[in-house]
Automatic annotation (TrEMBL), chain B:
<protein>
    <submittedName>
        <fullName>DUF6510 family protein</fullName>
    </submittedName>
</protein>
<dbReference type="Pfam" id="PF20120">
    <property type="entry name" value="DUF6510"/>
</dbReference>
<dbReference type="InterPro" id="IPR045423">
    <property type="entry name" value="DUF6510"/>
</dbReference>
<feature type="region of interest" description="Disordered">
    <location>
        <begin position="85"/>
        <end position="104"/>
    </location>
</feature>
Automatic annotation (TrEMBL), chain C:
<dbReference type="InterPro" id="IPR050415">
    <property type="entry name" value="MRET"/>
</dbReference>
<keyword id="KW-0479">Metal-binding</keyword>
<dbReference type="InterPro" id="IPR039261">
    <property type="entry name" value="FNR_nucleotide-bd"/>
</dbReference>
<keyword id="KW-0001">2Fe-2S</keyword>
<dbReference type="Pfam" id="PF00175">
    <property type="entry name" value="NAD_binding_1"/>
</dbReference>
<dbReference type="InterPro" id="IPR001709">
    <property type="entry name" value="Flavoprot_Pyr_Nucl_cyt_Rdtase"/>
</dbReference>
<dbReference type="InterPro" id="IPR017938">
    <property type="entry name" value="Riboflavin_synthase-like_b-brl"/>
</dbReference>
<dbReference type="InterPro" id="IPR008333">
    <property type="entry name" value="Cbr1-like_FAD-bd_dom"/>
</dbReference>
<dbReference type="InterPro" id="IPR017927">
    <property type="entry name" value="FAD-bd_FR_type"/>
</dbReference>
Length: 242, 104, 266
């Protein structure tokens, strides 16, 4: 377990120095955010008395640096995609061989399951106990032959994200189309999104359209732009080089 | 301008929490010398020229994405991380900073 | 007249870093909004229409950031913002209901030199200027009108202010005074466009902004303003822009600023 020590000055009218280690992160002392300056050096942050916003300050068993949140923030890299189910399809394309395509009716006829999972966004909010219905990627991959170890996930609207094939399998990922018992709303990625809760939520691509198999781990939209290529919240792999 | 955008837009769908280049300008502080909102940006996708302030801005996620208001192609993005700042202008064919006619 | 590019250059560079701001005054604007007066040592000034980024940080490090238009023309060391309460918002409930005199937050700015009306701007010439506000979009536009009055600028100005109902009206007494006497300095035409509930005696029925509402007053020499500023929620800005284009406004006369969605549910 890596040992991290650091110091941040808070300016609340009284000076206070906090020293924290990785061990203390999951206690009541949370790691305060560093100012994002290029060199990463420490910087002042003003604490606003009585501010909580949408987060619950009580300690919980969260990945390092995360905060528990109420609500479900809508964060997006582009306009909400509105894809009617009649037009929707999902395609897995191996590097060699025929792509395999499912229509909405074909997809929803596959065996599905209801799962309850915690989700962790790289912007530091965590939502516990979210309930989804979806089809496990294992089910789709029963019909696909591939020797490739990596996958690029594509969304309607052009978003992409990459991950190893093994992280899509073994009951760890779904094509999800219901949230909290209702059809998944477009603003949260409906009609269907990828759900990979063991990685940061930017990997759970909204408006999922297909997966292209790849021989190497080519980076997707955020992975090619400062963010970690794998993104394990429990090892706090937020940024490239973490 | 009040933009308390953590709340979602109309649950039925719609355009989502879209702001504009004015709201995103602060993210460019220290990256672009001077004021980005006076730039005229040409989209590499459809060729439309527009004021930076008119670009559609998608904020609050891992980075800020700026899109052409005509075709929604991405014209720029910026990500500020503790490891460094990233800037991508590849979706813009040009940024022009000349003052408007009449200004000194 | 100051060189606008020089003024913008210096305020843009100043806008690079976060500074501590202390609340020193509050006054209520409507049933669900209030103006916060913040003391920001070293604040060098701003132009009408510019905004600040606000950052709130909780004791455990959780932070949220939003943007607010500057509500007053520049005064040394002083920044004012008018905040509208969004019931499910993350930041506005703190700013409108919780924050007390002496409390602190971080500000960054001033930001933005495009959505600005500096009195005497040569690109506007003799005007006139049309201001179109949707809800809390009225904040930067009233700042522009105040700056114009302070500078003694005679540019003909009309403010069209779209709002849901009387409870949502901000700057009521000031708008009345502003539009009372056409011969008084700082006069501006003010048109209130109520979309849902209309006060007794109000002549215009409730309804969304129409082409009629943005038609200039008969006193204007031209059918079109030399410059239009539109500010409000995204949907409102799109709607108003469509009306302006329909009326014949060329693209380069229109400047817009979008706020986030209002009245949203979870």
């Amino acid at each position: 377990m890596r040992h991290i020590a650091g110091q941040v000055r808070f300016d609340t009218g009284r000076s206070r120095t906090l020293v924290w280690t990785k061990e203390s992160i999951n206690s009541s002392v949370r790691r305060p955010p560093l100012e994002t300056v290029g060199s990463g050096r420490e910087h002042r942050v003003t604490i606003s008395r009585g501010f909580f916003g949408h987060h619950d300050p009580r300690a919980a068993d969260l990945p390092p640096g995360q905060h528990l949140t109420h609500g479900f923030p809508v964060l997006t890299a582009g306009p909400t995609q509105l894809i009617p189910t009649e037009r929707w399809s999902f395609t897995i394309t191996p590097e060699i061989g025929e792509p395999k395509r499912w229509s909405w009716d074909e997809m929803t006829a596959l065996p599905s399951e209801e799962i309850t999972v915690d989700i962790h966004c790289v912007t530091r909010w965590t939502k516990l106990g979210t309930r989804w219905r979806g089809v496990a990627l294992d089910t789709f991959f029963e019909d696909v032959e591939t020797d490739d170890d990596y996958a690029m996930v594509h969304s309607y609207g052009g978003y992409t994200t990459n991950l190893p094939l093994e992280d899509l399998l073994g009951g760890r990922a779904w094509i999800a189309y219901e949230f909290e018992g209702e059809p998944l709303h477009a603003e949260h990625g409906g009609p269907a999104r990828l759900l990979v809760p063991h990685l940061y939520f930017w990997k759970s691509a909204k408006w999922v359209k297909g997966i292209t198999m790849q021989r190497s781990d080519e980076p997707g939209f955020w992975e090619s732009f400062g963010y970690h290529t794998y993104g394990d919240p429990w090892r706090e792999q937020r940024y490239a080089d973490d | 301008m009040t933009s308390d955008f953590s709340t979602p837009a109309a649950p039925g769908g719609g355009t989502g929490p879209v702001l504009d280049g004015n709201a995103a300008a602060g993210e460019f502080a220290g990256i672009i010398a001077g004021d980005p909102t006076i730039a005229t940006v040409r989209c590499a996708g459809c060729g439309a020229a527009q004021a930076f302030g008119q670009l559609h801005a998608y904020m609050g996620g891992p980075g800020t994405v700026l899109r052409c208001r005509e075709c929604e192609a991405m014209v720029a993005r910026v990500a500020r991380t503790p490891r460094g700042t990233w800037l991508d202008l590849s979706g813009s064919s040009s940024w022009s900073f000349s003052p408007a006619p009449g200004l000194a | 007249m100051t060189d606008t590019n020089t003024a913008l250059g210096s305020v843009a560079l100043a806008g690079n870093r976060w500074r501590k701001a202390t609340l020193v005054g509050v006054h209520s604007q409507s049933w669900h909004s209030r103006t916060l007066d913040l003391h920001v040592p070293g604040w060098t000034g701003h132009l009408p229409g510019q905004h600040v980024d606000i950052r709130l940080t909780a004791a455990d490090g959780y932070s949220a950031q939003r943007s607010y238009s500057l509500a007053e023309p520049a005064t040394p060391d002083r920044v004012a913002i008018t905040v509208d309460l969004l019931p499910h918002g993350e930041v506005s409930p703190y700013l409108v209901e919780t924050m007390e005199i002496g409390d602190e937050l971080d500000v960054r700015g001033p930001i933005g030199g495009w959505f600005v009306w500096e009195p005497g701007d040569p690109s506007i010439g003799d005007g006139p200027v049309l201001l179109i506000a949707g809800g809390s979009g009225v904040v930067p536009l009233v700042t522009m009108v105040r700056a114009r009055k302070r500078a003694g600028d005679p540019t003909r100005t009309m403010l069209v202010y779209s709002l849901r109902g009387p409870r949502d009206l901000m700057y009521g007494p000031e708008l009345e005074e502003m539009s009372a006497d056409p011969s008084a300095p700082g006069f501006a035409d003010v048109r209130l466009v109520y979309t849902r509930r209309v006060p007794d005696g109000h002549l215009r029925a409730a309804g969304h902004l129409t082409v009629e509402d943005i038609r200039p007053p008969s006193a204007w020499p031209e059918p079109l303003a030399a410059r239009v500023y539109v500010c409000g929620p995204s949907g409102f800005v799109d709607h108003a822009t469509r009306l302006l284009r329909t009326t014949g406004y060329p693209e380069d006369r229109i400047r817009t600023e979008r706020f986030g969605a209002t009245g949203a549910t979870r």
